[in-house]
Amino acid sequence: MSTIRERHWARRWAVWNGLLWSLGNGMASTTLVIYLAGALHAERFGLSIGLLTAAPYVAGLLRLAAPALMAHCGGRKRFTLAGFFLSAACLAAVPWLAAPGRLPTAAWSLAALILLWCLHHLFQYLAVIGLWSWLADAARLQVRGRFFGRRERWMFAGTALAAIFAGLMDWWAKQLWPQVPAWFPYGVAAAVGAGLMLAALVPLGLMPALGAGPVRKDLHPVERTNASRKKFFRGALWAPFLDARFLPLLLFSGWFSFSNGLTQSAQNFFVVRVLGISLLLSLTLQTTMRLGQWAISPRVGKLADSIGNRPVLIAGQLLTAAGLLCFLAASLGKWYWILGAWVFWVAYAGLNVCLPNLVLKLSPCESNGPYMAAFQAIGGLCFAAGTVLGGLMVDHCQGQPVLRLHDGEIQILPYLFFVGWAVRSVGVLLLLPIAEPRHNKLDAPC
Questions:
Q1: In DSSP terms, which residues pair with 403 in a beta bridge?
Q2: Contact of 32 with 172, CB cutoff 8 Å
């Protein structure tokens, strides 16, 4: 049983870990990698965006095995540290292996970029399962929303600061050294991001282990033999899918992720190729959004502890869906409306805080790892499917910008944005059947 002092220091080091990791993530964001893919002269840019975004989530299905792997690695602390180290190492290899001329053709360079990006996220996803279980023990249920909100706040700050720096570095390089290849600033940013992610392992290593692992032998004495341990993990793997209370949240995870992925390629294609927005402006808009999320995250966590996670999730889902209406207006000729999308997307703070909090709230205290793994795996698979489908649709739109109907024709990109808004908004109906348990200081032991 962990002490109050151990949990206190675990929360402190977890915040420092989140800040350093987010600085690295901001330097090597998906947006930056998409621009790097464009610099590698990807012919099918829409599909390339889809693959870069979707491939890591397909590989992320392997996170279902995270609880079993944690046991074989000697506990969740060692497993989490190893996963984040391998993730940072893969990211560090991106600028070296994917650089033009390193491999025979640009297509090979792009393939190397996608593979390394996929492995970077795969190891990260596996490590995150152990980290969430670890953080659940660092904060008891009645204050967990506040802790998650505080940690998310510093992560938003770190990502915003690093993203702006990456954008300025790209701009400075093009102004001061115009002869430098277009891909080079992106590669340098990715390398710096990898270094910061490695630095984030230091506070993670200093966090108390809190004495909990993916399985507690006092609760499962049959684990004392190898055969019974395998039997337990087979049962734990399927437990989230057989839990009637947890299934509605899994269904929402799939719908939320698919609807988000469906318009990813259209959004990036519209910003990069149609409007021609620079990386600096694109990252500035993201930074503005994250500053808003930084401001409201602690309040969101406190609100979730007070009234529950579900009302906050419903409001957040409706507001983030409305961001696509701004893309719709911009695609119809009023480009400045696109700025409003990032204002609406500040509401993602509510989803980022409340979704993991609700997963842990609906999970058994002694075995929350399989539940978090199932939630993220289903969401990742559906996001990948939506993103690849959206990428193929965008590539099709390049040759056929209008959709011809029997009674006229409509522009395809505005149509995609409208459909994306409608599909995302309908997702709030899937939140209604979720029976969120209430708690107080007496009945919330974990």
A1: 410
A2: no
What DSSP designation does 441 have?
A: S
Check which CATH number belongs to the domain holding 360 and give it. 1.20.1250.20
**Helix and strand numbers, DSSP H then E, in the chain:** 18, 2
Encode the chain (446 residues) as per-residue pLDDT tens digits.
Answer: 567 788 888 888 989 998 999 899 888 877 677 777 766 655 555 566 666 766 676 666 677 777 777 777 777 888 899 999 999 999 888 888 777 777 777 777 777 888 888 888 889 888 888 888 888 788 777 777 788 888 888 887 888 788 778 878 777 877 777 777 767 777 788 889 999 999 999 999 898 887 544 444 443 333 333 444 454 445 566 788 888 889 999 999 999 999 998 888 788 778 877 777 776 777 778 778 878 888 888 888 888 888 889 999 999 999 999 999 988 888 777 778 888 999 999 999 889 889 988 988 888 876 777 888 888 888 888 888 888 788 777 766 665 544 443 444 446 677 788 888 999 999 999 999 988 876 544 344 45
Within a domain: 444 = no
C-alpha separations of 155 from 14, 158, 159, 301, 359 in Å:
11, 5, 6, 14, 20
* Residue 440, domain member (yes or no): no
Closest to 195 measured CA to CA, from 18, 21, 13: 21
What 3-state DSSP class applies to 403?
A: strand
Helices (H), 177-207: 184-199, 201-206
What total number of domains does the chain contain?
1
Angle, vertex CA 80, rays to CA 309 and CA 374, nearest 5: 45
Q: Is residue 219 part of a domain?
A: no
Range of the domain at 270: 4-213+226-430
- Which residues pair with residue 402 across a beta bridge? 411
Q: How far apart (Å, rounded) are the C-alpha atoms in residues 355 and 74?
A: 28
What DSSP character marks residue 405?
Answer: E
Q: How far, in Å, CA of 385 to CA of 184, rounded?
A: 31
